[in-house]
Design a protein that fits this description.
Blueprint lengths: L1 H20 L7 H12 L15 H15 L8 H23 L2 H7 L10 H8 L2 H5 L7 H16 L5 H12 L3 H16 L11 H12 L5 H16 L17 H13 L1 H14 L2 H20 L14 H9 L13 H14 L5 H15 L11 H13 L5 H24 L11
Helix pairs in contact: 1-4, 1-6, 2-3, 4-6, 4-8, 6-19, 6-20, 8-9, 8-10, 8-19, 9-12, 10-12, 10-18, 13-14, 13-17, 14-17, 14-20, 15-17
């Protein structure tokens, strides 16, 4: 646990540096901070139309801010007070991942091998150092609370709690509406295990389908039905799942999101992908090789005809995606640079296949479908959207022992290097805007 404690301490230091160098709300923070301040002022009916997510974070933020103010840790409206909430969620996420990684009940659900009771502190560290998770732990965003809620839900379901998963599911959806997909995934994962379904073909067997039906409607898992129906009703009344600024967040068909996701897996977890390559060579797996080739062809098709450039991508040079799009000329249909995504995407697919090497194959299908449902309708390339599927991927790989200890440690080292470089660049590399202001 020492390494996890050090990471939480590092996150707190990062928060302190952030508050010192960037005292005012930054990037998307003005919307989140502004809405929370409205609630703190008692204006519960006021809503910023530019915000597209539910108010779950802001309601928790009000309680947190009041608590900090009562304890003498600052004014409730202060940006540092609100940002500190995410550092708390970062610490809670560390605890939750550790419990998931070292729980035999969780291992029984996620792996087809005999569970091994052994402490795995590196599992949490590998996820906590993931650059997008660590970097945004100092921002007042919904990401940390959202991931924490999904991980807690998975833990509760694996430990067969009755009422708590329903409460956690509602809270998760109140943080981010797309969490309905991950709530459904968590329930499906446990229900499939309860029904003894391990292979995709078993989904077409009458006895297994009947067993699934019983597990959904005649056990404590029935809560997921209530959550899904409630969400569907709210979406129908709202005219869609997007709140606020619907014009810039219209649903589209954007399968290229899966190319970007797998490419990020290769970039940030290259040693998992390398183990996938070794596995194919060692076992001479022609089937996996054929699948990767097909994925490469599909990636070309997606990049050629389904590459969407959202106006937000090129509107703000404070985002990493701005520079990726600019350097690879993604908005230029004649540019061949965009096809550079194909190689890392294929490598990422190898990593995904390796991650599920020791799990029931039906789990890979459920994660794939859930990820598609969450990402493909979105026109915006935003790495934060990939946090939940990547965290779940690495959790499954670690719990099922599909990734080796040396690879995990190498990932931690790689992530630490990237985090140091990114934080240093963000805090100390300034630029001068055309109007002369320094940012």
């Amino acid at each position: 646990m020492l390494i996890n404690n050090l990471l939480v301490l590092t996150s707190a230091i990062w928060l302190g540096l952030m508050n010192k160098e960037v005292a005012e709300p930054y990037m998307d923070e003005p919307f989140h901070v502004g809405q929370t301040r409205s609630y703190l002022a008692g204006n519960w009916s006021q809503w910023d139309e530019k915000i597209t997510t539910p108010p779950g974070l802001y309601i928790v933020g009000v309680g947190w801010a009041r608590l900090c103010e009562a304890a003498g840790f600052g004014e409730s409206r202060d940006v540092p007070v609100l940002r500190a909430l995410n550092t708390v969620f970062y610490a809670l996420t560390a605890i939750t991942i550790s419990r998931l990684a070292n729980s035999e009940k969780v291992a029984k659900v996620l792996t087809k091998k005999k569970p091994i009771a052994a402490q795995q502190p590196h599992v949490a560290a590998q996820i906590l150092t993931f650059p997008f998770l660590f970097f945004y732990s100092a921002f007042y965003y919904t990401d940390l609370a959202s991931i924490f809620s999904i991980l807690v839900l998975m833990l509760q379901l694996c430990h067969n709690h009755a009422l708590l998963p329903l409460v956690t599911s509602i809270w998760a959806v109140s943080l981010r509406q797309t969490n309905i997909v991950w709530v459904a995934l968590c329930y499906c994962t446990v229900i499939l295990h309860d029904a003894g379904v391990e292979d995709v073909l078993q989904l077409f067997q009458i006895d297994k389908v009947a067993s699934l039906f019983k597990k959904i409607f005649f056990t404590r898992r029935v809560g997921v039905v209530a959550v899904v129906l409630g969400f569907a009703s709210a979406a129908y009344v709202n005219g869609g799942i997007v709140l606020g600024d619907k014009s810039n967040h219209e649903a589209v068909f954007h399968p290229t999101q899966m190319v970007y996701l797998t490419a990020l897996v290769a970039v940030f977890f290259p040693f998992l992908c390398f183990e996938g390559v070794v596995g194919i060579v060692k076992h001479r797996s022609a089937g996996k090789l054929f699948f990767v080739v097909c994925w490469g062809v599909a990636s070309y098709v997606c990049l050629k005809w389904f590459c969407i450039t959202h106006p937000f991508t090129l509107a703000d040079n404070r985002h990493f995606t701005f520079y990726i799009w600019k350097r690879l000329q993604m908005q230029n249909e004649e540019s061949l640079l965009r096809f550079l995504f194909i190689v890392p995407s294929c490598g990422g697919v190898l990593g995904v296949l390796q991650a599920f090497a020791n799990t029931p194959k039906v789990l890979l299908l459920t994660l794939f479908l859930a990820t598609c449902a969450s990402l493909v309708p979105s026109p915006l390339f935003e790495p934060r959207y990939y946090l939940t599927p990547i965290v779940l991927l690495i959790l499954v790989a670690s719990v099922s022992r599909s990734i080796s200890f040396p690879s995990s440690m190498l990932h931690i080292a790689l992530h630490t290097f990237i985090n140091v470089a990114t934080v240093s660049l963000f805090l100390f590399k300034t630029f001068t805007a055309p109007d002369g202001t320094v940012g």
